[in-house]
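seq as requested:
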Amino acid sequence: MIRQTMIKKFSVLLFLVFFFGLMNSPDVSAQDREYQLATRLMQQKKYEQACPLFETLQKTYPTRFLFFEKRVECLLTMNDTEEAIQVAEARFRSEMKGSADDGTDGRMDGNLVPRIETRLLLAETLHAGERTEEAFSIWSSIMDGAETYKSEADVSLLIRSLENRREFSLAAQVIEKQRIIIGKPDWYRQALSEIYMQGGEFEKGVQELYEMVVEEPQTMIQVQQRLLRMRETSLYEIAAVELEDRLFTLDEEHIAYGQLFQLLSWLYLETENYDRALRFARRYESRSERARQQVYVLGIKFRSAHQYELAVEAFRFYEKDETNLRWRALEEMANTYGEWAGYIVEKSLVQGPASDDLYQRAYQTYEVLYSMAPTYSNTQKVLTSLLDLSLDIYHDPELAEQWLDALRGFKEDGIETAYTHYAKGRLYLFGEEYRMARQRLTRADRLTQDANLSEKVRFYLSLADLFAGDNDFAVIQLASLQRRSSSWYANEAIVLEQWIQSGLRADSTGSQLLDFTRLYRQLLQGDYKEALKDANWITDHPDHAFAGHASIQLARYLPSSYAQEVLLLIRQIEPQFESKPIHERLLWEQAKAARILLQTGQKDSGSAKENTTEGIQMEELDQMVQNLYEELLYRYPGGYYTELARTYLQRQQQPASS
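struct tokens:
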């Protein structure tokens, strides 16, 4: 052990002696120290101090090209182009005479030829000094010179030199000539593409990228990465047009067509050119066996982008398909209708189809799917969706029982499935049997391997705890759900937990939270009249912790036939929330209720609808909406509803004929 320790110490000592000996070597240490100091001064932008050091180094070590290059760089940075040209020309003449030991790399017409780096640097300095003809003469002589300068490394140096002086057109000529000499390897296509793009010829640049993929499909990743770095909508639009033109001339069965089509779809989505994306996808899938499910995948992407109408159209493409894809598309169409309706409710939108109509379409589509394909692989999901709509939208437990009966026919090893337990749990929850609801939903969560079903189960478990008054258990369920994903249920879980925490802070007995949860439960169950009857505490107790939240939930869940009650309620409480974050939403909900009343009154003009609300004449509603939207823009210029309000006001200002 002692001997090994001594050997290690001796080895370290030898290394240190060698290192310090090397550092103390007069040739190496002096040169390195001077160079490091000069380089540090350059990094600090102290070029006046760095330049003399590089000059000394160049004169002391004339064979080192690096010192000469750095000196010229310093001079150009200081805009001392005349001296830079003189230094570069002196080096050039020196190498022509062969005085530099390492400065020759071939002969031309009996004379020594300076190294290519020297000639290029001279061309750059001449160009910087606006002696462009002389610079072009040197670049052209290299481009047209002997085969000595035709290696890939030399071509790269020439291109980089031209790029440094932004002479992209000549750089492109260099690459084109090189491709003629040695063929068309991918490196030259990619380099040419970069040159074109830097020179402002973006169309030619992307054309080269697409041709590179056609020749070598594995280069698709490089092309995608290059386009991703742009992040410029106008450039994406150009790229999409050029790619579409290229695909029209390419056989759909070509091995690269599918990859280029995926790129085109992405460009269309990035530029929000959704209609064109759908048309091209249908064309591709109709003409190629390799394009299976392309429209289906696009429909999923449309839904993610909230382009629900186009998503439905995409899924309808498979109505006559003879494979299982037909049923999958029909299920996704129903899912889209449901998500579309939920989006309208969540965002409190007025324009577009009514959410009730969309929920009805979703229900009917699920129903058709189940009747036409009862053995479809996702039938249990379809049945639970029908049950959810029966309870959440129609508030009809008897209708939900029918779908539960259908689910009972599905068993795994003789045991009820997770979907059946979920359905029973939901019915128990609707019937306010919270203990039984928790038992069934807990079993469903243990049995399921479906992440989406698990999220729904956790959400309704938390509701069961909340409605039963077990706030601590509800918080535990909500916390576990929040960690799962950013789905609708996870986001809703965050809101529910905030309500619970706010209620407990406002009143340790939980009485205010109890008022709110009772109202929330009534709204979820469709007991709208009871909810309004029990909501007097909102106006009677303006300091109630949930007055604002309860108003928004009433506006969110009450059908449009209750717009008058919603408007009167929010108008009464809104002023007390002017300094609160919730105020923007209250303004928006007022405007929405007023618009609904206005639309209803316009449909029923001439009837008893003239006095639409208490104290508000029909002709006043339009001005009320205008004022509310203007207040939204004034108070919350960067708010969530700003663009929607601005769009409405702009539309109102347009002539009726338009």
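DSSP finds 34 helices and four strands in the chain.
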